[in-house]
Design goal:
Elements lengths: L1 H31 L29 H12 L2 E6 L2 E6 L2 H10 L1 H4 L6 H6 L13 H14 L8 H4 L2
Antiparallel strand pairs: 1-2
Pfam family, one: p450
GO molecular function: heme binding; iron ion binding; monooxygenase activity; oxidoreductase activity, acting on paired donors, with incorporation or reduction of molecular oxygen
InterPro entries: Cyt_P450, Cyt_P450_sf, Cytochrome_P450_fung
């Protein structure tokens, strides 16, 4: 009987150890300020567990709050709200550098299980990630929906 109880207590101790390690690893990742690839996030206010920076996001006069925060953290600030990353750019120079000069890097779309896998909407133009397939769809869309294309649809519009 004692041998069975000892086996159960060892198994329970091992399970507690594994759960503790997973909790410590999660807490370390949360407190270390690094992303999945191990690179550090840009500076920003320290958040709380689970809700992260929920209380740091301003509800009114956002521009004033972000201007004050940019004096402390710089032109690029990082927030997380319920594990959703948010990057705030507080200067035109940084915004142009990231979104104009490096647009190919940052032009992706978030993956939606509902839209992509459950509804099979992988090839919808608005959900495509930037790349050769997106450029092909964009070109076809632009050829038919730019302002000068209206005359070719005049006979349909007037019916």
């Amino acid at each position: 009987m004692l041998a069975v109880e000892g086996a159960y207590s060892r198994a329970a101790l091992l399970a507690c150890g594994v759960v503790s390690l997973l909790i410590f690893r999660a807490l370390y990742r949360w407190s270390s300020g690094t992303n999945r690839s191990g690179l550090p996030y840009p500076p920003g206010p320290k958040g709380y567990p689970v809700i992260n920076n929920l209380f740091d996001i301003p509800m009114n006069k956002e521009w004033e709050v972000y201007r004050e925060l940019s004096k402390k953290y710089g032109d690029i600030m990082f927030f997380k709200v319920f594990n959703t990353p948010i990057m705030i750019l507080s200067s035109q120079k940084v915004a142009l550098d990231l979104f104009e000069k490096r647009s190919a890097i940052y032009s992706g779309r978030p993956h939606s299980v509902m839209m992509h896998e459950l509804l099979s909407m992988d090839n919808f133009f608005s959900l495509l990630n930037y790349g050769s397939w997106w450029r092909r769809h964009r070109r076809a869309f632009h050829q038919n929906f730019y302002p000068n294309a209206i005359p070719q649809y005049r006979h349909i519009i007037t019916k």
